[in-house]
Protein 1
Amino acid sequence: MPSNPGHEKDKEAKLYIVSTPIGNLADITLRALDTLRKVDLIAAEDTRHTRKLLSYYDIHVRLVSYHEHNARLRGGELLDKIASGQSVALVTDAGTPGVSDPGQFLIEAALQRGMEPVAIPGPTALISALVVSGLSTQPFVFLGFPPAKGAERRRFFEKNSRLAMTLILYESPRRLTKTLKDMLLSWGERRVAVARELTKIHEQIFRGSISDAIEYFMADIRGELTLVVEGAGHSKPRLDGESPAPCPEGLNRDFSNRESPAWRDELAALLRQGLSSKEAASAIATRFNLPRRTVYQAALALKRDEGFHC
């Protein structure tokens, strides 16, 4: 085979950041396979997971673990091996290392020691989800995983509530419903795409409003999730004759007041999701800088409206 200009020498002592499939094992580049075969050592977030990939492609290279619980100790060991002349490939469970995983710490430590990491590009879930979402692909911002709870989580949603660009988040199945509700509470009604099990047999792309998504994903779900959310100020008005988003059992599905100010529409959306008048009013008053009592009275009026039975 003719030589490839710029191709790395076999087993050159470097840290290789190797992207691996996010689901379908066929989604790996020839260069990635070549690199994994030639390095002295492969550092993997979960060795059991990576061993399946290596076995599939008949790759027999020493495998060690590198994850958030041993990153400090193991990271130093890996860099010492590179300094002594060995080559190391870093892989994550799925996709590109350094994106919402401990790989970023190893990359930063390598740079601090004067080592130049080499990127071996390939799949990443956030880009795959973005391009099939149906939402604007530029500009966008990747927010990673929202904090699990507490004040840090509240600040996360508040801080990002006014970003006009498309937002991309990762989330676990057990927290999806909670995150969708927090998004609706802090960001208001927007379009969202929820990508589940990308490139796998049960791949699914849900597209709709946040309210739609909350109802759709009420049952237990499994798999890796990527959320692509419309930026602030970009929601499209409902078309004439278009049905409103489905609401939980017990709420009137025909409620619509297109002549109301934007905050009233968002207030109604929160009530549809089962929030109390007090909770919904508090969220809307904060977001739109309105008197809390005024919004609370509007919430009560909405509940009394003969077209909105809560």
Protein 2
Amino acid sequence: MLAYTIKRVLGAIPTLFVLITIAFFMIRMAPGGPFDADQALPPEMEANLRAAYHLDEPLYHQYARYLSGLLSGDFGPSFQYRDFTVTELIMTGFPVSLRLGFSAIVLALFFGALAGSIAALKQNSKTDHFIMTLSMTGVSIPNFVVAPVLILFFAVTLGWLPAGGLGTGGIRNYILPTISLALPQIAYIARLTRGSMIEVLRSPFIRTAKAQGLRTQTIILRHALKPAMMPVVSYLGPATAGIITGSVVIEQIFGIPGLGRFFIQGALNRDYTLVMGVVIFYGLLIIAFNLLVDIIYAYLDPKLRK
């Protein structure tokens, strides 16, 4: 197991290097610059700013300097938030994004697995058709469409929940953005769980358990659930990526001061270091979660370790 884990970790390093390289040169290709404004700066002042941030150096020098800083854990200074480094901004927004994303993935796992299991046990019934219809609807509608509808209904029409912001940071402020992020993943997980559970319930060891007179609840929880969840576990990597990328839009819609808002503002202001820092940090999270999923999957299925 240790050799398998080391192999997966070493395989993630080239992926991260390619991500850093592509992001660095793509953002430099975008029109405009970090010091462009409605009113142009005097040439002398702009030249001094570019020299202070080493933007007057050749591009390959800037790239080598940036890689050197990353090796020491330094994402560089922000061009727009002048009193903060990119690392400080990431550490400010990450706890909020983490709380939102973790709540969404837990919600998606619980309700997706529950709905998929019920649909599998009630295969081809009205309950099954109803759950799968809702799942298909959830897959088809993106979360940036779901979010305004939830705000309109629960915040504006009914007045039950806040329309945006964090306020005092209470649970009520997280309910709508969490649901907006989780709904598409609930739909995917429900469909995966249903298909996998139906296949497992037709397996010989399940028929043997039924022949021994075990209760349906015992068969599901002790024998069928673990193998049925293996496709769901393998999907957790893409699901996490979907929630992370979806949070960029959701945080902007709900006015949540997480990493997503910093990313949007950095892109609009051509804040090279801030955009790069958030992209690399998101990339590290996605690689880490995919690595964790690979390890869990190998633990559940020992054949993969060989």
Protein 3
Amino acid sequence: MPVILEARDLVKRYPLGDGEVEALRGVSLAVEQGEFVAVMGSSGSGKSTMLHLLGGLDLPTSGEVVIDGIGISGLGEEQRTLTRRAKTGFVFQFFNLIPLLSVAENVGLPFLIAGDALGRHRSRIDELLTMVGLADKADHSPDQLSAGEQQRVALARALATGPAILLADEPTGNLDYTTGTEILDLLWDSADRLGQTIVLVTHEARAAAYADRVLVVRDGQIRDEIALGRRAEHEARPLIRRLAELGL
């Protein structure tokens, strides 16, 4: 499969007092179209920083990110924003839904931001709500939904424009075990059935076990890679043992 996302020698430094801290130290990776990759690491390892750079939410100090053939690190702010909207979808730990919008309007928010009328995309919105099991709640407001349902809306919104890559930062971190499993099942299904490319940042071995491979980040570098096999069974115990060997 073709490479859809590539990072080339990413370095990210932040000012700290009179000096600086190096959050990433020469990270390179390639993600193929349709691949599900998990990124694991302890708090402060640099995994979330890496995800933000991959999605164009932040710029590297040096290095390059290429999404679907477009090098985004050298783009101006406006062009980078437009490319990010067109090529990436984001799911975060906190759902970031707009309280004053209905469920359907939240799913269609990327279209609204682009200046499109929701009516033009209603079939796509309905399709996504059906996929996440919320077709009967299109007119509800976010505060009428459970936490798991709100995360389902956030996932549907992230998939609305058919992004080249879906980036998920601890999407189960604010959910109970059962609800988190439902979200992971939906992510797996979007990769398996829809061919969606996914990069998932997580600290949970059970979540990482859904991926095709796991990248282990420590001290701002990718220190190890664990291949789980294409569409591996959702079995975390062998992965937990391997991560324990790596000190995670």
